[in-house]
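Researcher: Structure prediction, please.
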Amino acid sequence: MKSNILVTGCGGDIGQSVGKILNESDFVDTLYGCDISDRNAAKFIFSNFFVGLPCNDKDYIVNLEKIIEEKKIDIIIPISEPELRFFSENNFKDKIGRAKILIASSESLRIGFDKLATANFLEKHQLPFPKTELLNQLVNPAFPLIIKSRTGSGSKTIHKVDNKEDFNFLVKKQPTFIAQEYLSDSLGEFTCGLYRSKKGLMRTIIFKRELTGGYSGYGEVIENNIITELLHKLAEKLNLIGSINIQLRIRGDEPVIFEINPRFSSTVLFRYLFGFKDLEWSIQDLLDHEIGDYTKAKEGRMFYKGFKEYID
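Model: Predicted structure follows.
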């Protein structure tokens, strides 16, 4: 049975990647996409594109419910982090109007959206973690260290600090940020897709990546049993249902998680092309359908992030 699907916050790179995947999926009837702006390439990917309200608008839910009813939406997939936070904080877990929400389980959202909570959670469950403190409570900083937003995402809010002068400047400028142990990337940085179904089926994919302008510009599929075992333990401790993205680096001889992103990531399309179809599996699980097979990509396969121009 095919479904009418609405992807909200579809204007960014993740939303556009999700749209490209769903345009090829045989269980989609009509695909809709909305964003708070039409000045992005999503309107070339979603044939049924429209501009919606931001989630901080007082009429956001009422307007969304109206759209869902008018367009007979069966599944809504929120993409933008502000929307995901909004749904999590306002306890929208299952449905909006007639539409089911495709969203990771509540504990992964709560932990993943708070970087201090992430470190505390990992420590509590005896999983490798970077030492993390509130910036304005750190008395004797050991350099280098990372200073970043406790709740935000993206490279613009991340600072590597090597001296007391820069540290003191950021304490005054960003007192609500966190200070985190610096993890060297000399052995690489890894971004991992982690999927777990309602019945506990777990699947992973691991990329050793390089960042380009804040995005994964290049990546290579790797096999690492230690990382895979760590991801499985994390999924169980989080009681994960759905798909999330994990970022880690190597400290000594152990992988250390420094980010839990409780959403589809910018590598969702690459993962799909390598056979890790977590978006489709999540939809199948949401609808209580049988989950498709997974044939792992060969180690050493690589991806490269490119760009495409659109003219209107």
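Model: The mean pLDDT is 95.
Researcher: Thanks, that helps.
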